[in-house]
Specification:
Glycerol-3-phosphate (1)-acyltransferase, single chain, globular, alpha/beta, 247 residues, 7-stranded mixed sheet, 7 strands
Length: 247
């Protein structure tokens, strides 16, 4: 597929996201008046927007589960991160209420800003106060029965093909503190379809292959074991991702 065609596909995808976001905006603006009460409604709108905007341009998601997941429980969900489509993949993966934790700059995006001002948790890594408040909100969410989705690499790298970066230890401390299980998720080929924000290489239709690994129980673990847990999850995700061309 030529670069021009891929660039055109990217424009169509962005237009599709914007179209469905505008379509749902009146509902979202109404629900945003009381985001705590309307958490599930806002999350449902996001799920529908993600599904429709991807489907319209021929981007689909195939989920494979190593073991069945009991979605009635809260989890800390950790996935590798190479594409903006990873966000939609997580939205479609998790049927129960959850929040993303992400960089504070996402507040400035007209689409993601709506969700980070309501149900998601912005994080300024340069501010200890911001980090403390963000993880306190995440702790409260988990104890209230809502899952957290955190990309533990903390960013999408500039290298192509991408590689798996070291993980931050925040998500793993959070899981141990709340004694909830971690779900490692391997997003195998998103970077081949839509690398980063697709500005450089454009995008194309395709099927994202998402592998959901067996939850890792944290019951009984102590905070001093967070680094080991982090390294174990990193090693596990890297092992599975390498099978399909991840570096």
């Amino acid at each position: 597929m030529t670069r021009l065609v891929r660039k055109t596909h990217r424009c169509l995808y962005l237009a599709s996201v914007l179209f469905f976001f505008i379509l749902f905006y009146p509902l979202l603006a109404f629900f945003a008046k009381d985001p705590e009460r309307n958490f599930h409604r806002i999350a449902r709108c996001r799920r529908i927007i993600g599904f429709l905007s991807s489907t319209l341009v021929g981007v689909f998601y195939r989920f494979r589960y190593e073991t069945p997941i009991d979605w009635s429980k809260p989890y800390v969900i950790c996935a590798n991160h190479t594409s903006n489509l990873d966000i939609t993949a997580m939205v479609l993966l998790c049927p129960s209420d959850f929040s993303f934790m992400g960089k504070i700059e996402l507040l400035n995006n007209p689409v993601t800003g709506m969700f980070f001002k309501t149900i998601d948790i912005p994080l300024n890594r340069q501010s200890r106060i911001s980090a403390f408040k963000a993880f306190k909100r995440a702790d409260d969410n988990l104890r209230a029965g809502r899952s957290m989705v955190i990309f533990p690499e903390g960013h999408i790298g500039e290298e192509f093909p991408p590689r798996l970066y070291d993980f931050k230890n925040g998500p793993f401390k959070l899981a141990i503190e709340t004694q909830v299980s971690i779900i490692p998720v391997v997003i195998h080929n998103a970077w081949k379809i839509f690398w980063d924000d697709a500005k450089t290489l454009g995008s194309r239709p395709g099927i994202l292959e998402v592998e959901v690994l067996t939850p890792i129980v944290t019951t009984g673990l102590q905070l001093e074991q967070a680094d080991q847990l982090r390294d174990d999850v990193h090693r596990l995700i890297k092992k599975h991702w390498n099978k399909t061309g991840g570096l």
